[in-house]
Every structure is written in C-alpha cells, then in structure tokens.
Design goal:
This protein has helices spanning 36-44, 86-102, 121-132, 149-164, 184-194, and strands at residues 6-12, 25-30, 62-67, 71-75, 106-114, 137-142, 173-175. By secondary structure, the protein is an alpha/beta fold. Bound molecules: guanosine-5'-triphosphate (GTP) and magnesium ion.
Length: 201
Amino acid sequence: MIIKTAEFIKSSTSEKQCPTGTLPEFAFIGRSNVGKSSLINFLSGKKNLAKTSSTPGKTRLINHFIINDAWYIVDLPGYGYSRASKKEKEKIDKIIHGYISKRKQMYCLFVLIDCRHNPQRIDLQFIYWLGKNQVPFVIVFTKTDKLNRQELKNNVKIYTGELKKEWEEVPEYFFTSVKNRAGREEILEYIDKWGDKSMRV
Ligand code: GTP
Ligand code: MG
C-alpha cells in the first residue's frame, strides 16, 4: 500500500466523540512507552504525525489520523502507566475499553508488545479480555533492534508459549523496528487485505 496522505483529524476523550462515518479504523494499543506513536509515524511516513516521547504517558486521548482519505489510524492511550494516579489510570482504562468495545468501525486492533520483556501480566490480561470480548486483534513485537536474532527468537517462543496456555491458536504477530525501518510493508499489506471485510459492522 502506498501512503499518499496522512493527516491528524481529532483527539477524543471518549468513543462518543470520535469521528462519525463508516471509514475503517485500525487502532494501536499497548503499554505506555511501547512505541505506539513512533510506529504510527513510521507507518504513515510522517515523522511528527503522532506525538512521541521518551517519558511514558504521552498519549492520553484517542487520536484519529486519516490515511489516503480512506481509512483511519487510531493512536490509543497506553495502559499501565505506573506513575499515573489510580484515578487517572481508571480514566484511561475507561477510554480504552469504551473505544474498543463500542467502536464498530474498528476493524482490527494492533496490540504492541516490547520484544525485550518477559510476558507481563497486564498485557496477558488485556489480550485475554480481547478474546473474551471477541475483538479482532494481532500482536506487534516492537523495538526489535534492541535484541539480536537469537534473543528475539527466544523471547517470542516464551511469549507464544504463554499465549498457548489460553488460546488454541496463537494470534497472528508482526515484528517492527522504527530504528531499523523494519516491518512497515508487512503491516500495511495486512491492513490492505482487510478491504471492507469488517467482522464488527
Ligand atoms: P505513550 O504515548 O506514552 O503511551 O508511549 P508510546 O507507546 O506512544 O511510545 P512512543 O512512540 O512515544 O515511544 C517511546 C520511546 O520508545 C521513544 O523514546 C521512542 O523513540 C522509542 N522507540 C519507539 N519505537 C522504537 C524502536 O523501534 N526502536 C527503538 N530503539 N526505540 C523505539
Ligand atoms: Mg503515544
């Protein structure tokens, strides 16, 4: 897929405020600082489309970006930001869960996992919730430049092993590195393949 245009449309505090219409949406989620906004900039080919930061907790709203005037990339707030207050965390969880469970235009959710870490309970719980609620999703292992080939292979094996405890079939997964410019084509091709075949509308 060739990205000709990518524009910021709006930030929303709830699903209700999101853009109207029926254009397909592909949303990006994961723990704070996993690299959601960086990946969105990489995919769109626009360096500063989504705001990135080395300090976790940068994205606190639902951000819509329109691509080729035909579909949206959605940047969601990171979950599990440890330094946020309990009240703030609850607010973010409500935004995230409200959007995912209600947004019929969301064709697929990309769940980002930092490839360096062992499976974290917060990610596994979130993935379990997606399954229970029949949300279409895939996994993206981010920051692959931080590991060598063998380390990455080992970590993915540990991760898929963990997922197999709950899932008959391991969800589809991708690898990305914004630094090495890896994984862009694969994800865009995957999005392209969805066409108009939403499971939810
Ligand atoms: P929040 O909005 O706070 O939830 O974070 P986010 O998930 O949007 O992360 P963001 O894209 O802001 O990136 C967090 C940090 O990780 C930044 O310092 C990025 O430069 C860095 N980063 C993101 N992707 C990669 C990658 O593929 N490789 C490396 N080495 N660093 C990355
Ligand atoms: Mg962000």
